[in-house]
Amino acid sequence: MSNKLTKRAVCILSGGMDSTLSSYIAKNEGYEIIAVHFNYGQRTEKRELKAFRDICNDLQIEEKYEIDIPFFTQIGASALTDASIDVPTGGVEPGVPITYVPFRNGIFLSIATAIAEKEEAQALFIGVVEEDSSGYPDCTDSFISKMTSAINEGTKETTKIEIKTPLVKLMKKDIVKKAIELDVPLKHTWSCYKEEDEACGVCDSCRLRLNGFKEANIIDPIPYKA
Question: Which reaction is catalysed here (predicted)?
């Protein structure tokens, strides 16, 4: 356990571009980072775990948690965790997409809060993006604000945790530009919902990512299927 003068932050780090940039911002703000990654039965679980480990090496993070949450595959209901539901590849549709995992960020934040309380961290970083996301209800400013109230209500009086969402109002092109500015190793990040060797380029997540790079006028360093 670090001394009380050290600022500590728990960073939820999926290995994607947004959570990686969020973690770099935490480091830039002077926090000692405790990284948390979730294996929840997502299609690209192995590839995301590799990204997480690579990024932890890049950031020289010593304290990290790899948490298994098997029940998401048990309940299904999402194309990310249920093999019988196809990941859509036709572009972003209106409404909440089938790739939404029920209350995933609420569950991630709850577990990360338990870790933050144990580690005596003051902040919890999550790379949610409201304006340029896929329409997930658990990525909004309003949701994060209510979760902040709930976690501080339900933890010890001495525990004071701020949920920090540095990217929540950014567009994908701004995220790409900010990542380049902070020298984030984007080649180590993974965003594809479907594939683990070469990104598919057509799922919602790939489309958002590719469009962000295009609008930022920067070449995406990860491999895509032809």
Answer: 7-carboxy-7-carbaguanine + NH4(+) + 2 ATP = 7-cyano-7-carbaguanine + 2 AMP + 2 diphosphate + 2 H(+)
What local confidence, expressed as pLDDT, does residue 4 receive?
A: 60
41 is in an annotated binding site: no
Whether 1 has a pLDDT exceeding 60, the answer reads no
C-alpha–C-alpha distance, residues 38 and 41, integer Å = 9
Residue 226 covered by a domain: no
Query: Is 222 within the bounds of a domain?
Result: no
- Local structure of residue 87 (DSSP, 8 states): P
Q: Any idea what the CATH number is for the domain that residue 23 is in?
A: 3.40.50.620
> Edge-to-edge, what's the strand order for the sheet holding 123-125?
63-68, 32-39, 8-12, 123-125, 162-164
36 alpha-carbon distance from chain centroid:
10
Inside any domain, residue 3: no
- Domain count for the chain, please give it: 1
Residue 68, marked binder: no
pTM over 0.90, yes/no = yes
- For residue 3, what pLDDT band results from cuts at 50, 70 and 90? low
DSSP letter for each residue of 105-143: HHHHHHHHHHHHHHHT-SEEE----STTSS--GGGSHHH
Is 1 a domain residue? no
Does residue 142 have a known ligand-binding role?
no
| pLDDT greater than 90 at residue 94 | no
* 23 in a labelled binding site: yes
Is residue 203 marked as binding?
Answer: yes
